[in-house]
Amino acid sequence: MAQDDNEKKPAGSQMRAKLHAWWEGYVYEPRPQAKAPAASPAPAAGAADAKHPDPVRLPTDGKVVVKDQWPPERIKVAQLIWGDGFTFPGGEEFAVEMARPLALHDGDTAMDLGCGLGAGTRAIAKAYGAWMEGYDLSPDLAKSGNNMSHAANMERKAPIGLLDVVDGSFKPKRYDGALVRNVFSMISDKPKLLTRLVHGMKPGGRLVVVDWTIAREDAMGDALDAYRLGEATAPRLSTVAQFTAQLEAAGLAVKIADDFTDAFRAVVLEGWSRIETIVDRGQLKPDEGKALMDEAKLWSRRLAAVAAGDLRVGRFLAERKPA
Q1: pTM
Q2: Which of 1, 127, 168, 170 could form a disulfide with 96 if both were Cys (CB 3.0 to 4.6 A apart)?
Q3: What domains does the chain contain, in order, with CATH numbers?
Q4: Half-sphere exposure of 18 (CA within 13 A, CB side)
């Protein structure tokens, strides 16, 4: 008697089939099968380093505006996809390249907003010799990321804290540069954060922003709707032109405002190309396997909206005007 299809497939193969189905946009429907029997501590502020002028003690709490949760199992699978210390596309080389237009030099001070676990922040600090301060909207990622900086003996060179976009502020004229990734699309009051960023930047300091944008103000469609409804925190998208106007209104001279979608999509696909290796290793517990599938569905919705031409990725380079 022939075996049932499900019996032929080991658990890893079934998971791979499900992920492939979600990625390609159809529903995986296996034949019915009988059921088988049945927190990180808050980061401590490091002592001041004599070489670092006016070190900042990063906040461990504040007003949280995102609903996105990052439990340990999700943090683990994200790093399997994107690389150690990363919860979003790219890697160390990509982060360092994104920061290149900031023209940082040894001893400069810069911030990295939307830094996740801070691997990119630490890589930028090493590559350019700058004193980096990483901030993320997620308290889960901020705490885990700062623990990683401590483990790497970089708690002074690249500390990670929570970004409080409601009440937080930056010291005036402190920063030589700022890299902001996937933050503005998560908040409604973009001008408020921009004003605070400009206040914290030195005259001539540079700002690089890489974020989700929308192709047109009136963009609509099933893929875009699915993307919006599938995000834990509802995205607040601007067009490239709208965000460019907000940058200029905040006192910044915009040097670059372009569509970065194709380059970003290539980085996303490169990360997901490792998915079969991840599954075949058989190193995922059931809750981690579910986290991997949830992550696959999340990114498949995002890429479907990109393929529809409605969701885009914008890249901006701006400079604070002389006082």
Answers
A1: 0.83
A2: 127
A3: 62-320 (3.40.50.150)
A4: 20
